[in-house]
Specification:
Number of strands: 10
CATH topology of the largest domain: Cobalt-precorrin-4 Transmethylase, domain 1
Shape: elongated
Radius of gyration: 19 Å
Mean pLDDT: 92
Largest sheet: 5 strands, parallel
Strand content: 15-25%
Number of domains: 2
Number of helices: 6
CATH architecture of the largest domain: 3-Layer(aba) Sandwich
CATH superfamily of the largest domain: Tetrapyrrole methylase, N-terminal domain
């Protein structure tokens, strides 16, 4: 039997209207929908996709537990287990869509599972989605980069001191738990900052200066920092 194919499908940042036509088509054509997390119905990516693809309710859906931790061994084991589960469906010749927020090429769990399965000879493909920072820039009605201006994408859950010295525009992602610390650093640097919390989702909030920003934010807090 011919092996199935795994697709990493980007569902965009939150608004189902920002899902691409290709993402919708691939989901509709897939036999199995894989969702990172303990239960599909609790997944933000699943809930976004469901609003654009009601057919999800009739699909075979599998949850892949992926703990929110920086412990390398724990992460590696969860990725290995996820790959094992998906290989079972692929060996049956089924097409699988692995749903991921934003774009699958940017900080997604899918990438780790993809590498494992590719190493075992399975066929994989990524389907682009609109990244959160592009949606946030549109929500704030600002540019990310112009002319020779550089653009830097920075995970703010890690140290950012050196990254803030980079020239051009800095996008700080996933800063929720460290929001006050990041905010204090930005105030000290005198940077021009705008922020969107829960972009495209319920409870979206926009802030147009560092001082407007709260001291605590959700996991989906994204800042755009200009020189």
């Amino acid at each position: 039997m011919k092996k199935g194919k795994l697709f990493g499908v980007g569902v965009g940042p939150g608004d189902p209207e920002l899902m691409t036509l290709k993402s919708v088509r691939v989901i509709e054509e897939s036999s199995v929908i894989a969702v990172p997390g303990e239960a599909p119905e609790n997944s933000v990516a699943y809930r976004i996709a469901l609003r654009a693809c009601p057919c999800l309710l009739k699909k075979e859906t599998v949850a892949l537990p992926m703990p929110m931790t920086k412990k390398e061994e724990v992460l590696k084991e969860s990725h290995r287990q996820g790959a094992e589960i998906l290989s079972g469906f692929l060996d049956q010749g089924k097409q699988v869509s692995f749903l991921t927020l934003g774009d699958p090429s940017i900080y997604s769990t899918y990438l780790y599972v993809k590498k494992i399965l590719e190493g075992r000879g399975y066929d994989t493909e990524m389907v682009s989605g609109i990244p959160s920072f592009c949606a946030a820039a549109a929500a704030l009605n600002v540019s990310l980069s112009e002319q020779a201006e550089s653009l830097h994408i920075i995970p703010a859950s890690y140290p950012i001191e050196e990254a803030l010295k980079l020239p051009g525009t800095k996008v700080l992602m996933k800063s929720g738990k460290k929001l006050k610390q990041v905010k204090d650093q930005l105030l000290a640097a005198g940077s021009e900052v705008k922020m969107v919390e829960n972009c495209g989702m319920e409870g979206e909030r926009r802030y147009f200066s560092t001082r407007e920003m709260p001291d605590e934010g959700s996991y989906y807090s994204l800042m755009i920092v200009k020189d």
